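Lecture notes, continued. The same structure-token format from the folding unit now serves as the input rather than the output. Read the line below as a description of shape only.
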């Protein structure tokens, strides 16, 4: 009976993990659908241009270069387009020329690869450039060209690169919205943890406080996702001249990564201290728990305004009022209470920076606590 129960629990855990994994995979695909469509269209356009405009019968290098150049991210996309295009063109041209002179075979392949990589290294130290020169020279040596087209395959590489360059300039607005949306997710998680910590401080439930601490310790991926979203937004600005008007908003959101990281870290410290106090049955003042809940409400308000792309003036007023409350609240004069109060004030300073205040201005806005 006990063994059957253990098997049932194991199966339940596997089922839960499978559902989470499936959701994560579907979310990953959904987030990359634009990239998939962009690469697919660029490949088709590169083939069409090479066959119809340039007049090559089988321009397989054109779609290959277009897809490799675009990749699946916006980071350093223009540089990648240049490196791959030139690297492929160098490798293909050199291979075509040497095959005409010395033919194809095992030793000829070694000479062609060595020559392509050497020339590529003389041009630049970029690993992608060198690798593409070597790979495409191998393809040229091992794949016979159509009669009369032996020296035209490097033109296909240039065609694919040109199509990729145009496609790279066309990007959706989603990567520009994502930093703000992810910032709202982080702030909302801070609110959830603060609210749960306030409940634990009120009832002293040590087991629930430990669960809240475990949830707080699992928040590091949220900050990494926020940093990745900010980097992606900045990369979009660098690769698309059509999105330059969004530069100010995206850069402001990128600057919020650091205060949001600090807010999350300070929240984790607060949650840990509440868990320690609950475990040792050290009562915290009820006013501290109330401040946690009030700050959670203000953080939720801030998250709502971030997600809507609004100025967070209302949330700033709420945060400043709570800051005044931390100065007027009674002092318990024990370690746990002092840590909780100090972390509340630190989180308020961090969140005030999200509303547009700098760190010194936010710090000065909080009156000193009661002695």
């Amino acid at each position: 009976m006990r063994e059957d129960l253990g098997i049932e629990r194991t199966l339940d855990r596997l089922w839960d993990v499978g559902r989470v994994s499936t959701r994560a995979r579907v979310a990953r695909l959904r987030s990359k659908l634009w990239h998939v469509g962009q690469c697919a269209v660029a490949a088709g356009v590169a083939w069409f241009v090479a066959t119809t405009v340039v007049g090559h019968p089988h321009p397989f290098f054109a779609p290959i270069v277009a897809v490799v150049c675009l990749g699946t991210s916006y980071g350093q996309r223009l540089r990648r387009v240049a490196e791959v295009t030139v690297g492929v063109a160098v490798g293909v041209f050199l291979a075509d020329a040497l095959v005409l002179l010395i033919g194809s075979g095992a030793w000829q392949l070694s000479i062609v690869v060595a020559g392509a990589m050497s020339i590529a290294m003389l041009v630049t130290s970029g690993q992608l450039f060198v690798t593409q020169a070597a790979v495409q020279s191998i393809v040229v040596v091992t794949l016979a060209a159509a009669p009369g087209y032996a020296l035209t395959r490097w033109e296909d590489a240039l065609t694919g690169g040109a199509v990729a360059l145009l496609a790279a300039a066309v990007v959706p607005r989603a990567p520009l919205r994502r930093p703000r949306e992810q910032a709202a997710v982080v702030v909302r998680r801070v609110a959830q943890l603060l609210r749960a910590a306030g409940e634990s401080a009120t009832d002293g439930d040590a087991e629930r406080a430990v669960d809240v601490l475990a949830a707080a310790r699992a928040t590091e991926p949220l900050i990494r996702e926020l940093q990745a979203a900010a980097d992606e937004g900045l990369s979009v600005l660098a690769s698309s001249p059509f999105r330059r008007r969004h530069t100010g908003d995206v850069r402001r959101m990128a600057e919020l990564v650091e205060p949001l990281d600090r807010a999350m870290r300070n929240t984790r410290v607060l949650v840990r201290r509440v868990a320690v106090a609950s475990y040792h049955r050290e009562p915290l003042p009820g006013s501290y728990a109330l401040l946690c809940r009030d700050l959670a409400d203000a953080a939720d308000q801030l998250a709502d305004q971030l997600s809507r792309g609004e100025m967070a003036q209302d949330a700033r007023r709420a945060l400043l009022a709570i800051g005044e409350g931390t100065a007027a609240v009674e002092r318990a004069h024990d370690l746990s209470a002092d840590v909780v109060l100090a972390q509340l004030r630190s989180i308020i300073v961090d969140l005030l920076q999200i509303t547009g205040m700098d760190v010194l201005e936010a710090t000065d806005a909080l009156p000193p606590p009661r002695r």
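Point for the exam: The longest helix spans residues 2-31.
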